[in-house]
Amino acid sequence: xxxxxxxxxxxxxxxxxxxxxxxxxxxxxxxxxxxxxxxxxxxxxxxxxxxxxxxxxxxxxxxxxxxxxxxxxxxxxxxxxxxxxxxxxxxxxxxxxxxxxxxxxxxxxxxxxxxxxxxxxxxxxxxxxxxxxxxxxxxxxxxxxxxxxxxxxxxxxxxxxxxxxxxxxxxxxxxxxxxxxxxxxxxxxxxxxxxxxxxxxxxxxxxxxxxxxxxxxxxxxxxxxxxxxxxxxxxxxxxxxxxxxxxxxxxxxxxxxxxxxxxxxxxxxxxxxxxxxxxxxxxxxxxxxxxxxxxxxxxxxxxxxxxxxxxx
Length: 312
Description:
28% of the residues lie in helices and 20% in strands. With 312 residues, the chain is α+β, with helices and mostly antiparallel strands. The longest helix has 31 residues, at 40-70.
């Protein structure tokens, strides 16, 4: 009997409460001044612990990020050329491009008599050429005899484009459109040029070989160019493509290379003028860039670009 009284002195079973009463008491227990099972001092201690803990985590992350940024150069990539994911083989890009809604399409299809349709395509070219029309203090006039000085970049002259001008709406309305090509930028890449008529690749078009010979006749430096050629992908395409002009020249002059990420740099461009493509026919076109260190692979589109042209 005495043992039972001692047990009752030290232990009392919890009172039985209903669900709502038990929940209310858990939220706030007036007898013990506990909220959610903890007193105010207990909540203060745990809050202080987590504040310190997360402050240390944030500080550690910021410190590691600061160390990481110290290893980077905003102007020069850490991995270049063969060590980088981009590699050493530049590709070609073209403008205008189809609507972004169909990212896989490479079809340039328009109706020459529809001014709205023509404007939709030529507006893209306007936007593409806008940076080339702006003035930049760091850009200088260049030529084969006058490459850019250290720290400067070459202007891309926009006054020698014949029919491929904004005023002419790039000749789209005349059913002889101008398509613009650019060589993709690779930091510190320098082309190994085909600047002689010796050891030209067998796959190079005959008309380009003749053009290189003609440029050499005008002076050796005139052949220091990354050459460009465009043609139909299939015999039927070549029948329908018609004559092609390259404006202002048939390629990208050497003095635009290498790309060094200098302020104001713009990649050189070539306007490919299709004089009289057959109307109402889909023409598959492939354009290639030619240099000894540009490898060509049609399957992977290395060193080339493909697009389709259809003029109604």
